Amino acid sequence: MKFYSVAIPSLAMILVATSLVREAQAFAPPRIVASSITSRTPGFANLRQSIRYDRINGEVEDDTSTTLQSSASDIELTSGKRRFLDSLPRIGRRKDELDDNILKTAIPNMINLGVVPLVNAVDTFWVGRLGLALALAGQSAANQASFTIFFLISFLPNIMTPLVASAVASGNEEEAQRRVCESIFLCTTLGLLGTGLLVAFPKQVLSALVLPGDAPAMAYAAPYLRWRAIGMVPSLISATGFAAYRGMLNTVTPLKVSLFTNAMNLVLDPLCMFGGGLGFLGAAVATAASETLGGLTYLRLLLRKGLARWSILLKPPSWKSLLPLLQGGAAMLFRQLTLNGAFLIATRRAQVMDPTGISGAAYGIATQISNVGIILMVAMQSTTAALVPASMAKEGPASARKCADRLMIWSTLMGIVLAVVQYASLPFIVPIFSTLPEVREAVKLPAFIASLTHILDGPIFAGEGVMMGLGSYRDLAIITGIWALFMVGGIMSPFGQRLDGIMWTIFFASIIAQISTVGHYLKIGPLANLKKKKEMEMETAPFS
């Protein structure tokens, strides 16, 4: 068994590495007519070529002479029933270029985001083979603490995606390069602070976030967290690289990097734990090593593609250039804190609901099952955040609205399908997580409610992606704050003293979020009332 567990991922790693080498060779400067290069910045020959993509294989088309013929004036701004019909996906023979771009961006995103939870499950599997319950508990606590610090810092790459998308779509290569380098510099600086905190004070961080100071699992969690923290800076660089490629509508290259690095993690897990004699710490070492490889791979790709330069990476950005990034970053940081805080309160409420731990286990299983669907919805969110600003920069607001309308429908359909599939699969999935009849029975209603919530998630995640893509970070933070207040209020009320009450509270809070998000998109957002705005411009044009 150990041979196959190492040999199969090794073969996959070799195949993906070969593909990455070929793609890296494609980044070499192609033969370009001198007049087609408008930037005097070194390395931008490659980036100039990458403005148009062959979205079938994620590689660059060698066609700088092609220009977009359509414009905002060519796109009719419809309303009412006709707008809804125009936003429906074109399935089968009727599928158009927009649907094609959406699917070829979203599907690799989904696979890429889905790989990480799968590999984390394999890490847990190998630690579980040691037969030490406290080692499993310590690993879980350390990973939770590491993820919390990571997500508090990784708001910067999320902001960078639409900025890069707009810059690349409009042909502003210097702006794209500057944004990528600024994000890497800030992420590295903050990541070093986070790494130092976790390495120097692991017990204090763990006791503040997830474990009591005298918990037996602390003896395992603290050293695990120290090793796990080594990969934080490379992980942030990887997040920036992923965001940059997503902004260029190339999701295939990040997928290859993810498969390559995670295959290495699968190989190193048993080698470090059993072959290297590190025991449960070997899983942390393997994870940190694979994250370091991922960060170095992305850095090399960004340098080869002209999206990063050492002279800019090593230079602190000016306050003037940082101000827009930090303004959006503050709103996104508030949003991350709000989301994490609300779900942390829900988790603690479920954990202390009964001394047997059945409610806590049932809540954990329900959320674990639901998170699989959430990953797919996050992929739709990031796809929206990349495609909408790219359409805005290329063809104007009318094209961006058409793209956003179509993504809204796609995301809604995805939510409905997820709800049906998740509910239908519950009888088969729940027994995998627990053999206790009491837990299996307790998870039925919460898991059903979580399935229903996916129906609401579709428009929510697409609407949030539109706000991220067009820079409406403050409005997004306000909507998230309203959702969190409603959710926490329900959880702290008598209604939240039951497990189904917690899940129903999340469901009703999601209704508030859906109304707010869709209302923002249709009524007050950057793409709202475009037809009326255009008519007003036409009326005032003769007098201007």
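(the above was protein one; protein two follows)
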Amino acid sequence: MGCNFSKKTQDSSELPPPSSESESGSGSHLIPDLTTYEAECRTDPDLRSFDSTVQQSTSRVINTLAVNFGSLTLDSLRIVSESLLETNQEVVTLILKSQEDIWKNKELLSLVEDYFESSLQTLDFCTALGRCLKRVRDTQLIIHLALKHFEEEAETKNYLKTLQDLKDFKAAGNPFSEEFLLLFQSVYRRQETLFRKLQIKKIKLDKKLKSVKGWRKLSNAIFLATFASVLICSVVAAAIAAPPVVTALAAAAAVPLGSMGKWFNSIWKKFENELKGQGEMLNTMQLGTFIAITDLDSIRVLVDKLEIEIEALLQNAIFAIREEDAAVMLAVEEIKKKLSGFVQSIEDLSEHSDKCSRDIRLARKVVPGWNLERNLGKSNLEIFLARFNPGPLLAIYGAGEQGLQSCCSKSMSHYDHANEVS
């Protein structure tokens, strides 16, 4: 229909205004907003339908009042009331089509809470790993002491102290308890679950950003409904004073609603920025979770390697203890060969444990500062890169938002493939 309501209203505004106040230009602020609305209306069938309904309802009110100008009958008031209710109902219908609350995102809040709980659990794991590493270093000291005693007892070939040290090493056993391994599995599963939740939420958010047209439709509908309501009320007021209906329409068209369209546009812009900000925060949490999972993967590999080396040293110690003096020299020589690898594995694991803990703590600082630093004009990605410095990962996938998303999507495919293999 070509947005009849907006066209007719603009035509009526060209009529002589009833007062000098309307000549001051208040109506001129309205025309650009209606022009914007008209452009949206041409491309949106739902908005065209809404426009048609409001236009017919408003026309019915104006025609009724035109017949009975100078007085308001009960029938006229009934038609006015019905028109306002119909207009409001049309807006409600459009709102119900957009059922989500755009200002209070409980799902995102829940994800942030999950992120912090998951990171706390990971920090607990790092603490447990630190205790295991302390026990490993204690066994390392026992081995060094055994080697020292072996050198001292080499001349007499009486290896009592050396054998006692090896027995102490054997008694220390595997520093990585079953409880530690269960904690690791729990932390790893939780991080993976959180990563998938973040990915699903990001997909939903991307779809929501693609549906910005629907939100613009809603804001335009509210704008039109407000304009129609004010127009109807203005006509009613003019009819009470009994001027010609044409003059009443001109007065209604001159109502200063110019700021209304700008207000809705500002609301929409704020919401769009909010969605983009949420996307940035999800990207940050997703990358932080991915880095935590990567750190855990490295730790798992190093723990497995260290356990193998500890087992090899234990076997040599058991051999020396069982065979006593005759086998001590052979066992100690094997221990010497494996010792450097054992020490290096301890250092590697300790370094990765510190890195995991450091990454988690830094990530926990980034997310709470999201709102504050966004208000200072920084994107969440900039905040993350400034504090987190995930250089090696972004060097692989590329810098910037695209690299960040690529990093996250690639990582998810890696996990899917790993799960299929396992």
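Reviewer note on protein two: The chain has a mean pLDDT of 67.
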